[in-house]
Every structure is written in structure tokens, then in C-alpha cells.
Design a protein that fits this description.
Number of helices: 6
Shape: globular
Structural class: alpha/beta
Order of helices and strands: HEHEHEHEHEH
Mean pLDDT: 80
Helix content: 40-55%
Strand content: 5-15%
Number of strands: 5
Strand order of the largest sheet: 2-1-3-4-5
């Protein structure tokens, strides 16, 4: 091989080695297919007020209601993540964003890096198989526990529901059972029952007195 051919061959070899190196670096940086993407917790100053994420239904858990009273009573920063018609389960006949459930808010709650999470009550869905209700409540609360191992997680039972008190009672029992199984905190909103607004519909509505009652019970249940 003459001098020019030798130089040409050596140049091609160097190019090939560089190309292989680029491919290997790219593969090392690429995400593994199917691997979960962990949310990055939001950074907060060390002296920041304790953060509470409330997962609940609007308008029952709107920030101006009992979550705001909880913030005032305990000096918390409260962030409300709310669904519209749905709670643990999609509301019957819902469509679009109205079908967004508590489980859909878990990743967002984890990313906020709270000190406390309060999962507010929820509404029963008539006609849903009881084993399905148990499975969804368990997976929702377990997702919070796994994603927030150091946070205090409190699940409240549902508000009284005149339209389906049997379903509300069952859901309350499920929440109580699952919180005990997972080592989470629980507070009842039905024993004794929180007094609802006179024109309460679905989801149940709270007047000022009812909101104060819920805030008081939640505050007492948190360390």
C-alpha cells in the first residue's frame, strides 16, 4: 500500500472509531424504554411554611373553603389539586376533564414535594362493583405513599350523601381499611356527620360552618 493509501485507510479507521463512540454515548444517555420517569420535586427554602397538598373535588375543597381555613389555623401553605365531577372514580356519564380522577393528580402532587397530603373524601358512584372501588382507592393512596415516603398522608372519609348514603358508607369503610393497611392517617367526616349546606347537591356542598368543621377535623388529625 502506497503512502497515500495508508493515510486514507487510517483516516477512515479514525472516522469509524469516532462514529462508534458517538453512538455509544447517545445510547448511554437515552432513556430506557418503559422505564418510569420520576417527577422532579420542587425546591423550597428550609424556612418555608409546611406545604399541604389537598386532593379533592371542586367546589367542596376549593382553596377559599376548608383548605384556606386549615392554612390559617396551622400556618400551612396549601396547594389544592381539584377534580370537577369525579373523585376516586370517574363520575357516572362524565366526559373530558370531568372524568379526571384523584389518581390522575398523584404525579402532580408528588412533584410538589409536600410535607402533608390530604385526600378529601370523594363521592360514591352508584352501580360500581365494590372490588373495583377497593382496588382504585388502594392504588391511588399507595401511589402517594410510594412517591412521598416521608410525607404525612391523610385520607378523609366522604361527606354524608343523602342521594346514596349506602354507597358513601361503603366508601368510608374502604378508605378506613386501606389507610390502616398502608399505615396512613384517616379522619371521618360522617361520624358525627358534617352538616351540609341546605341546598347541597352533588358533590355535597359546605357552608361556612361545615367548612370550619372539616378544617377543624383535618387539623386535629395532622401531627
Amino acid at each position: 500500500m502506497n503512502g497515500v493509501g495508508w493515510v486514507w485507510a487510517r483516516w477512515l479507521a479514525l472516522v469509524a472509531i469516532a462514529a462508534v463512540a458517538v453512538v455509544l454515548v447517545a445510547l448511554s444517555l437515552a432513556p430506557v424504554a418503559g422505564a418510569p420517569i420520576e417527577p422532579t420535586p420542587s425546591a423550597r427554602p428550609d424556612d418555608a411554611a409546611p406545604r399541604v397538598v389537598v386532593i379533592g373535588q371542586s367546589p367542596t375543597s376549593d382553596p377559599g373553603g376548608w383548605p384556606g381555613q386549615l392554612a390559617n389555623a396551622r400556618g400551612f401553605e396549601v396547594v389544592a389539586l381539584l377534580t370537577s365531577d369525579s373523585s376516586y372514580l370517574p363520575a357516572a356519564g362524565c366526559s373530558g376533564d370531568a372524568c379526571r380522577t384523584y389518581a390522575d393528580l398523584v404525579t402532580e402532587a408528588i412533584a410538589l414535594d409536600p410535607d402533608y397530603v390530604v385526600v378529601a373524601g370523594g363521592a360514591s358512584v352508584a352501580g360500581v362493583d365494590q372490588s373495583t372501588i377497593l382496588s382504585i382507592v388502594r392504588s391511588t393512596l399507595a401511589g402517594l405513599r410510594v412517591g412521598l415516603p416521608d410525607a404525612t398522608i391523610l385520607a378523609a372519609g366522604p361527606l354524608p350523601d343523602a342521594a346514596d348514603q349506602t354507597g358513601a358508607t361503603y366508601l368510608d369503610g374502604v378508605i378506613r381499611q386501606v389507610t390502616a393497611d398502608l399505615g396512613l392517617s384517616y379522619v371521618s367526616l360522617s361520624a358525627p356527620p358534617v352538616v351540609l349546606a341546605p341546598d347541597s347537591a352533588v358533590p355535597p356542598a359546605l357552608d361556612a360552618g361545615g367548612a370550619a368543621d372539616v378544617a377543624s377535623r383535618v387539623a386535629a388529625a395532622l401531627p
